Amino acid sequence: MTTPFLVASIFLLGLSSLTTAANFTQVFESNEIIDFEWPSEEIKSQVLEDGTFKPEHMYPIFMAVYGTRIFFSLYKIRPGTPVTLVSLPTSNASSAPPKLTPFPSWDMHKTGDCNKIEEAKGLEVDSVGRLWVLDEGSYNCNCKIWTIDLIKNDHHTKLIHRFSFLHSLHDLVLDETPNGTFAYIARRYDFNIVVFSLERNQSWIVDTPGKRVNSIALSPKNQEARTLYLYEPFSKELNSISVAEVRKGTRTANPKAIGNWSAETYRMLMDNRGTIYATFWGRNFINSWNTSQPFEVQRFYEDAGLELDFDQFAFTFALDQSETLWMTVLDWNRQPKYRLLKAAVGAKSYIFEASQVSE
Ligand SMILES: *[C@@H]1O[C@H](CO)[C@@H](O)[C@H](O)[C@H]1NC(C)=O
Ligand SMILES: *[C@@H]1O[C@H](CO)[C@@H](O)[C@H](O)[C@H]1NC(C)=O
Ligand SMILES: *[C@@H]1O[C@H](CO)[C@@H](O)[C@H](O)[C@H]1NC(C)=O
Ligand SMILES: *[C@@H]1O[C@H](CO)[C@@H](O)[C@H](O)[C@H]1NC(C)=O
Ligand SMILES: *[C@@H]1O[C@H](CO)[C@@H](O)[C@H](O)[C@H]1NC(C)=O
Ligand SMILES: *[C@@H]1O[C@H](CO)[C@@H](O)[C@H](O)[C@H]1NC(C)=O
Questions:
Q1: Confidence category of residue 116, pLDDT binned at 50, 70, 90
Q2: Which positions ≥6 away from 128 have C-beta within 8 Å?
């Protein structure tokens, strides 16, 4: 059963300074079922019966927001996720929690079909309203990348590139330059990143000797020395490389160590005021670091009641175009299982030009 929407103010403060604190508002909560909009009742009962859809196995891990819609990729940790890219309205218009809608359509999804969306991973929205979707592919389909035009009624869904390798895409960031758009892609635990040039329709590997990469973040646009932040799993080390070097086409970059996060991060996000936010496996908090200052970990959000195993995660988040940070909280043990929260943070995504804090 689902519960009615709640709009509640949750009072949360960062530990060290008010500027990193945020007051979150709950948009909705849902106890157990995140349902889909199904093409028909027949399909729904069929997939419920054959186990292709297990409503209790929906784990949003990557997120992007544009206009009045949120996009999630769902983590295929257990069977029962028939589509991995879904959308949700940002507002609460009915008496029940909104339903996840397969995006861009039910028909565009099929595991094992190299021309369909098979397993969505990292998501980003660029400055012209295109959703970028990393697609893991499957056992016989290489990884690929899609763009979906969110302004033109989602009709322009394009498979823009097929990579030369199978599996293990994780997350991406976009670098929009006068010379074209680049995507920098973190795979899971490889000693390199993947660079994709949209205009050239080419991708190549940039080795990061001695450093594995998992999560990735990019400093704001038009910052003088745009910097790529790479997370090295196991050591928990945050590293940086110069974007100028990568744009020039280098095939080897030597990451510089900056500091260590306190836990294993699966997602980093940077705003246009230079703060990096990070979420962690098995942790009930989100940390941040103001990159204008020496490395110092701050607590951005914490939910003391969440209990997680090392292989579980609680949060996913994204910044929208109007300085709101959206976040889902997944509670593996208690109800409500899913919560969608938002907070005005006074910063947009790194996609936008760097902005200074006005105090
Ligand atoms: C959060 O709300 C409290 C109480 O209304 C207010 O004092 C505080 O300044 C707010 N913090 C932020 C970061 O907006
Ligand atoms: C959200 O849903 C609740 C429960 O039905 C309703 O009372 C409330 O007015 C809704 N809020 C908005 C903003 O529509
Ligand atoms: C880009 O390259 C992919 C192969 O990776 C190819 O399938 C696609 O047709 C190319 N797109 C264009 C516009 O040339
Ligand atoms: C764009 O390309 C030109 C010519 O290759 C180069 O001189 C210039 O530095 C590049 N600009 C940026 C922002 O990378
Ligand atoms: C991070 O931690 C590792 C040990 O796990 C240590 O070797 C390394 O020096 C630390 N890095 C930084 C930048 O503090
Ligand atoms: C980050 O640090 C800089 C330099 O100390 C400061 O001016 C800025 O206000 C800080 N940003 C935030 C969001 O607190």
A1: very high
A2: 151
